[in-house]
């Protein structure tokens, strides 16, 4: 039997494998399978940068009141103290951190001088030291008695494939911050969706119509799916267009359309596509009454093909996301009547996503006219943002993204190259991102107000 393909394998710079060599994806899979209940928190800057910066007072993770007193953690008790002062409440819990090979006697502490503010301290620095912004802490409680109870903990870097797995498995929306989840409920929900559609697949196969059925149920083209998602958002918002000058948060709209609405649609189509594809791989297109032994043999004999198919399905979302994001930005420019050229050829193999107002104007702005600019779009960046540097040729370059996990050193490096980053309004102000600390990061609202609108009159006269 061929070795199974790691559906979550990625490039060398992927954060799915930590510094100790443990595969975070494998640890997460086990946690999702074994844990009856999980507490998941998207980490704020203060939750992680104590492990990355010197002279930080906070040395742990903030736990909101609702989660602190919700039954997941042991109840707090009054700390006995010799000195006078405001009461301190605390509880201790045994925590395991398999990705760094440490077990801790962690402390949940509330200094009442700070109100209800509570932190989980005495956690391993190594588990937090290299995390990107908006990474996750995942905790599961095992055992029943006070002495037997243990909390298994995992930090998941937001730039890793393990984070994609976590978000998908527990259906964490883009604005998710903290909540308890029951993994079995989400697995059951997924199975029910598959079984509902499987009946249609089986009927089509038995009728000898699986090929035509597959054609009818195929994943829509990227543009069609983008239009469907945008239509849902417009209906929800009570709007007829996404003119960025007509509402306060155009960046947040881009994020909701591409990261929430469109992903839900994509996932539904992909689930159906996988069901049909696997039936065709194992049973073929001709109807019949295959014996169970034949089905088992087909599964074993064609396992490498099944693995390749599942791997390609897993990567399909990433491949489509960037193109789809471009479609939404293009529609925003059109609705805002912003002049632009798309994929204009500047040099061999150098085609910026958008040039405003035109390539000719960008290369040599007429005397007395505002200069043009380059607008590039990438839903997620990682190291790929460095590709846009080749597109600049001395021009102003703005890089739009809905990615929330860009580290401070990458933002600073962009600034040194003259690249300005455009992010959704919510992310610009978020405590989970690094954006608000950097002057070269603008919200989409600021970009359209202070950059585009001030140049449009000059561009239109040209």
For this entry, give a set of tags:
462 residues; alpha+beta; At1g16640 B3 domain; Restriction Endonuclease; 3 domains; nine-stranded mixed beta sheet; six-stranded mixed beta sheet; 15 strands; 41% helix; 16% strand; flat; disordered N terminus; Restriction endonuclease type II EcoRII C-terminal domain-containing protein
Describe what this molecule looks like in 3D.
Residues 1-21 are annotated as: Disordered. By secondary structure, the chain is an alpha+beta fold. The protein has 3 domains: 24-181, At1g16640 B3 domain; 186-331, no CATH class; 338-461, Restriction Endonuclease (3-Layer(aba) Sandwich), CATH 3.40.91. 41% of the residues lie in helices and 16% in strands. It has helices spanning 24-34, 45-48, 65-68, 161-170, 183-206, 210-216, 222-237, 250-283, 292-301, 303-335, 359-363, 408-416, 425-429, 444-461; strands at residues 38-42, 60-62, 77-78, 88-97, 102-111, 118-121, 136-142, 150-156, 178-181, 341-342, 354-356, 373-377, 397-400, 419-423, 441-443. A hairpin with a 6-residue loop joins strand 5 and strand 6 (118-121). Mean pLDDT is 83; it is low at 1-21.
């Amino acid at each position: 039997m061929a070795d199974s393909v790691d559906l979550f394998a990625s490039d060398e710079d992927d954060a799915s494998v930590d510094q100790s060599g443990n595969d975070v994806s494998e640890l997460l899979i086990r946690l999702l399978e074994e844990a009856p209940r999980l507490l998941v928190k998207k980490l704020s800057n203060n939750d992680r940068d104590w492990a990355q910066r010197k002279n930080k007072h906070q040395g742990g993770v903030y736990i909101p009141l609702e989660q602190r007193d919700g039954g997941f953690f042991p109840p707090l008790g009054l700390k006995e103290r010799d000195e006078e002062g405001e009461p301190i409440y605390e509880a201790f819990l045994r925590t395991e951190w398999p990705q760094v090979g440490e077990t801790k006697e962690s402390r949940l502490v509330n200094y009442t001088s700070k109100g209800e503010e509570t932190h989980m301290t005495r956690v391993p620095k190594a588990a937090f030291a290299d995390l990107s912004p908006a990474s996750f802490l995942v905790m599961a409680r095992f055992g029943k008695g006070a002495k037997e109870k243990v909390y298994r903990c995992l930090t998941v870097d937001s730039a890793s494939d393990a984070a994609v797995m976590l978000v998908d498995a527990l259906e964490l929306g883009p604005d998710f911050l903290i909540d308890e989840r029951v993994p079995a409920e989400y697995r059951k929900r997924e199975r029910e969706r598959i079984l509902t559609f499987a009946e249609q697949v089986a009927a089509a196969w038995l009728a000898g119509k699986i090929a035509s059925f597959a054609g009818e149920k195929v994943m829509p083209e990227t543009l069609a799916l983008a239009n469907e998602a945008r239509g849902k958002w417009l209906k929800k918002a009570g709007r007829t267009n996404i003119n960025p000058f007509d509402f306060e948060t155009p960046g947040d709209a881009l994020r909701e359309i591409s990261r929430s609405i469109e992903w839900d649609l994509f996932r539904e189509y992909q689930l159906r596509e996988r069901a049909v594809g696997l039936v065709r791989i194992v049973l073929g297109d001709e109807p019949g009454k295959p014996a169970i032994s034949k089905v088992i043999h087909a599964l074993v004999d064609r396992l490498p093909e099944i693995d390749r198919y599942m791997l390609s399905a897993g990567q399909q979302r990433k491949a489509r996301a960037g193109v789809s994001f471009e479609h939404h930005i293009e529609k925003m420019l059109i609705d805002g009547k912003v002049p632009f050229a798309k994929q204009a050829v500047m040099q061999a193999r150098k085609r910026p996503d958008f040039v405003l107002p035109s390539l000719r104007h960008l290369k040599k702005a007429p005397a007395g006219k505002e200069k043009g600019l380059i607008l590039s779009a990438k839903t997620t960046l990682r190291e790929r943002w460095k590709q846009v540097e080749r597109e600049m040729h001395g021009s102003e370059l703005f890089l739009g993204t809905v990615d929330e996990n860009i580290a401070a050193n990458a933002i600073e490096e962009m600034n040194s190259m003259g690249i300005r980053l455009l992010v959704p309004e919510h992310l610009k102000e978020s405590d989970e991102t690094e954006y608000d600390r950097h002057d070269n990061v603008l919200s989409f609202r600021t970009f359209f107000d202070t950059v585009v609108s001030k140049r449009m009159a000059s561009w239109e006269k040209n």
